[in-house]
Amino acid sequence: MFAESIKPEQSIDHASRATLTPEKIGRLAIGALYREVALAPKPGLVNPVDSGSHTDMDFSTFVRSLQALRGYFPAISRLGMQTPTYAQLQCCGVDAEQRMLQATNGINTHRGAIFNLGLLCAAAGADIALGGSCSAESVSRRVADLWGPAIVASAKPGNDSHGAVVQRRYGSGGARTEAAAGFPSAISIGLPAYRAALAQTHCPQQAAVQCFFALMAELEDTNLLWRGGHPGLDFARKAATTFLARGGVHAPDWQNHAQALHAKFVSRRLSPGGSADLLGVVLFLESL
Ligand SMILES: CC(C)(COP(=O)(O)OP(=O)(O)OC[C@H]1O[C@@H](n2cnc3c(N)ncnc32)[C@H](O[C@H]2O[C@H](COP(=O)(O)OP(=O)(O)OP(=O)(O)O)[C@@H](O)[C@H]2O)[C@@H]1O)[C@@H](O)C(=O)NCCC(=O)NCCS
Ligand SMILES: Nc1ncnc2[nH]cnc12
């Protein structure tokens, strides 16, 4: 069932970490996003086998989108080295969104990722320039310290994005709140879940599945709210909590359980896109 393939650039060693460059940071970002979309089972989401709860995109749409974003992550990381303002980062992010939409014929594959990983690549660049350790914790902290207030202030009342509609309807914070606070869900939920499962299983794919469910159990995922309202979000969180309580990826029948959940999410048209995005964030931070 595993379709994920680990790219060589993800096994960066300590010697190359000392010379982390915007180009390497960019490759790590693309590698993390590739691992996310290639991972299965992942309830409701696009994977190499099927399109989950989506009718307008498939695995090849995501691969095209990633190809279009190859130049973006090194570029924003290079920009980060000059500790820019959030407005300067936004120009770079909006331009990348245009390239993504061109490559996918207008379909939103990586909007959240352009935002989240764009900020983290810029923060990694800033961390290098400011002599930081470039650890997961140091880089995510930089996002909050350098751009947190500007990210919060950038939310426009009249915005008609799905995230903004959900915020008005349900009061949920979503991607902006998570990023402005330095990705607390990734740091305190996703990363520990990934590391613990990896230590126990020695299998990066199983660790990524465990991390995904840990995130979905806790996150206020605006994609779930957009498609299913509170009943949809509650259903997804309960499903993830039950999966974890039954042992998660350490249970002998975990693949059947996760596959059955995939079918249930598809029948309800639910897609945990925010949790998928944060899985990409965790995989990127871990690869640093
Ligand atoms: C700053 C923005 C990201 C603004 O976000 P906003 O809050 O206005 O909402 P959206 O534009 O709708 O996008 C937010 C995306 O963030 C992801 N997300 C959701 N919840 C969370 C969370 N709790 N934590 C982190 N991230 C989260 C999510 O991305 C995924 O979903 C995408 C599919 O979404 P969508 O098309 O809405 O849903 P569908 O169900 O497919 O639609 P239908 O089929 O029903 O029509 C998928 O791509 C994932 O990525 C949210 O979508 C931003 O918009 C912005 O300002 N962009 C400009 C670039 C920029 O300035 N960047 C800053 C510099 S780096
Ligand atoms: N694999 C995936 N399927 C659907 N939406 C997503 N958003 C981010 N990753 C996704």
UniProtKB/TrEMBL annotation:
EC number(s) stated in the UniProt entry for this protein: 2.4.2.52
UniProt GO molecular function: ATP binding; triphosphoribosyl-dephospho-CoA synthase activity
PANTHER family reported in the protein's UniProt record: 2-(5''-TRIPHOSPHORIBOSYL)-3'-DEPHOSPHOCOENZYME-A SYNTHASE (PTHR30201:SF2), TRIPHOSPHORIBOSYL-DEPHOSPHO-COA SYNTHASE (PTHR30201)
Function: Involved in the formation of 2-(5''-phosphoribosyl)-3'-dephosphocoenzyme-A, the prosthetic group of the acyl-carrier protein of the malonate decarboxylase.
Family per record: Belongs to the CitG/MdcB family.
Record NCBIfam families: malonate_mdcB (TIGR03132)
Catalysis: reaction(s): 3'-dephospho-CoA + ATP = 2'-(5''-triphospho-alpha-D-ribosyl)-3'-dephospho-CoA + adenine
Keyword match Ligase: no
Source species of the chain: Advenella incenata
Keywords linked to the UniProt accession: ATP-binding, Nucleotide-binding, Transferase
UniProt-listed GO biological process terms: prosthetic group biosynthetic process
Name of the protein in its database record: Probable 2-(5''-triphosphoribosyl)-3'-dephosphocoenzyme-A synthase
